[in-house]
């Protein structure tokens, strides 16, 4: 009786888990499937017509799509680099130093994450216009906006990693003849690095993804999300699914590589002997 | 190091004081000389300032006042990484991202030692960790981690090794085994060990010299034997083992030199205490006697100890503990004394609760402490 109960319990949990996973991943499968859809004959773009390699062979066929992708990736990379550096430094300051107004600073870092994007986007536009940059809206104003909202996320991510770090480790390093510089690079940084990496990945996907704030401050520049949004009014070109699938594969590769690396680290170098 | 071979490299703390930024004074003007090559234990209850003291010696915390010397070298304000001192941290603080071998060679690498491999091999053998060299700290047991922390510090051959409750996280059996191991290693390498603990048994079995610390001060310093047999304060009397403390009034002093004794009236009976064991100037005091020095015998039968003698006590409690029995004796003046008796079988059984007994102890085992001190100091620890 209990054995049967346990069997059901174990397998029910497994079945439910698989269902949830399926629910989460079906959209990605549909996207991948649609990237092979030959939509040239049909008016109904959201239905699978017939199989073709065309979309994958000519991913840049839709006018302006690859240009928008290039803009999004450049902004994403730049925003990631700058916000990760600033955010990491800020996190160190907030965790490691006791100063006047520290708790206020902690709160202020959090606030932008809680602000509705629509509000932040419009106030940024107001700011740019007030600063006389109304005519220069484009790549650089988007970049400034993205760096701004990414910093909060970087600070929060790195801060949680850093405050979980035992400060005795740094004291131990100093006790073992490492000067301040060596202590940072040999102990602190390697231990905080996973947090910094996670923050950078988060920053990139936030920047790449952003539509609302970008839309306010883009001027004539078109990012990938804006392109897709615009195209959706007429009918999304099937090549968007190609890009979507590629992004998914890229993310998957990242996760798998990270998992493999951390497993190898956990096993130590025992197997390497 | 560059000094003459015969120069003593004792660790000397003078007037060492630590006031934390919040105003709390954790260490109060500590004066201490720790001889080179000795196994020194700093014993005290939680929060008495042991870790703070070690951190100042290691350079991880700056003293508010006072100086720290090793031999003639003043290291009070030296950076931690420039001191010939290494620490085994309270929770080991092993670097989680490095292997055991990398943890151990961290110190030599930073000091620019070229060939660390042979040193690492040697120290891993000494601490029986050769098998674990390629693992990460998280994959080791508590006892193994403790030995890594020890190896990581020892490999540097510091002049002074500070051990901050290194055995605190281990279970009793492993703890006893590691105590023997630590002692063996210290004798083998001959370095100065400063071992912090709040376990009195550990301090007594391992150290040549024990300093009992309480509320930022050293209460008493000496060999384990001295501390136990002749405590100077009620705190030491209670913190190391247990003591019976009975109120008494000094009625006179007799003899001179080594034979000098003090006569104390204890609820109507005059007891004698050797002057070298009297630690009060006032006319009142706590007469102290260790429970295992208290002898009992059912009333009427002869008691084979010449000494201070009381009749009229009643056994109020008897706890059999295998090797010995703990009796509680209600004295005529209402106080309960404790008596430990070895179960030698001489009696052919326990003394039953309610039995009238005579009590005695040899005068040379008693001590007299200051009556202004709290008779309960140092008791509820642990
Ligand atoms: N950074 C600090 N600021 C203020 N007070 C502190 C600080 N560090 C320690 N203290 C206080 O100083 C006292 C001594 O601390 P310490 O860590 O030296 O105790 P300990 O003897 O090592 O105790 P334990 O056996 O529990 O490790 C404690 O009362 C503690 O609360
Ligand atoms: Mg401590």
From TrEMBL, chain A:
The keyword Membrane applies. Its main location: membrane. PROSITE patterns: ABC_TM1. Residues 69-258 form the ABC transmembrane type-1 domain. Keywords: Cell membrane, Membrane, Transmembrane, Transmembrane helix, Transport. It is a multi-pass membrane protein. The chain crosses the membrane at residues 12-36, 73-95, 107-131, 137-162, 183-206, 242-261. Signal peptide: none annotated. It is found in: Cell membrane. It holds the Pfam family BPD_transp_1. Belongs to the binding-protein-dependent transport system permease family. CysTW subfamily. This is Inner membrane ABC transporter permease protein YdcV.
TrEMBL record, chain B:
InterPro entries: AAA+_ATPase, ABC_SmlMolc_Importer, ABC_transporter-like_ATP-bd, ABC_transporter-like_CS, Mo/tungstate-bd_C_term_dom, P-loop_NTPase, Transp-assoc_OB_typ2. It holds the Pfam family ABC_tran. GO terms for molecular function: ATP binding. Residues 11-240 form the ABC transporter domain. Keywords: ATP-binding, Nucleotide-binding, Transport. This is Spermidine/putrescine import ATP-binding protein PotA. The gene is potA.
